[in-house]
Design goal:
mainly alpha; globular; binds fe (ii) ion
């Protein structure tokens, strides 16, 4: 039996890359498809020049295939380790509260939470999610230390958290 490594957001990305998912669909910023590319998407104009959606008039409007303030849940967002880990935890009944799961689901959605785009598509409920995503962001990119932690000393602390929120057995398949 193979035991899935305990999930962390980027650990999920590494595992996806290991199983031959191309780099572009496991890490990097996520963005909405089905409407005009947001200005804040990093490397957007260069990345999207070969994407047929760029030239499809149905998707080149402010709202594209969406209605105003339809909410994050209705948006089709580019595939990434965010969505993979969110679906993995949700379908395995992880005990992480909904706001924590949404924090995982949207943490790479930088054009939204850092760029300020897509506010014409999000709604009031999403403002609450935004607060938690921004809280998580303090510990995301560019916050890693060069100091290698003492894994053995830290393990009991993290093991308790794992047992509480991701009970033993759900990660085995
Ligand atoms: Fe991540």
């Amino acid at each position: 039996m193979y035991t899935f490594p305990r999930p962390g957001t980027h650990v999920a990305a590494h595992v996806m890359a290991f199983y031959n998912e191309p780099q572009w669909c496991v890490v990097g910023d996520t963005f909405v498809v089905g409407c005009k590319w947001a200005d804040s998407i990093v490397y957007g104009p260069e990345s999207f020049k070969d994407n047929p959606d760029t030239y499809n008039p149905k998707y080149n409007t402010k709202y594209g295939m969406y209605s105003p303030h339809c909410g994050l849940e209705k948006l089709l967002i580019s595939w990434s380790h965010d969505e993979y880990l969110y679906q993995f935890l949700k379908h395995n009944n992880a005990k992480i509260p909904e706001k924590g799961l949404l924090m995982i689901r949207y943490h790479s959605f930088y054009p939204w939470h850092a760029g300020g785009d897509y506010r014409h598509l999000t709604n009031e409920k999403d403002e609450e999610t935004l607060k938690w995503v921004l809280e998580f962001n303090k510990y995301d990119l560019y916050t890693k230390s060069e100091h290698v932690p003492d894994i053995k000393a830290l393990w009991p602390y993290y093991e308790n958290l794992i047992e509480k929120y991701i009970p033993c057995g759900i990660c085995e398949f």
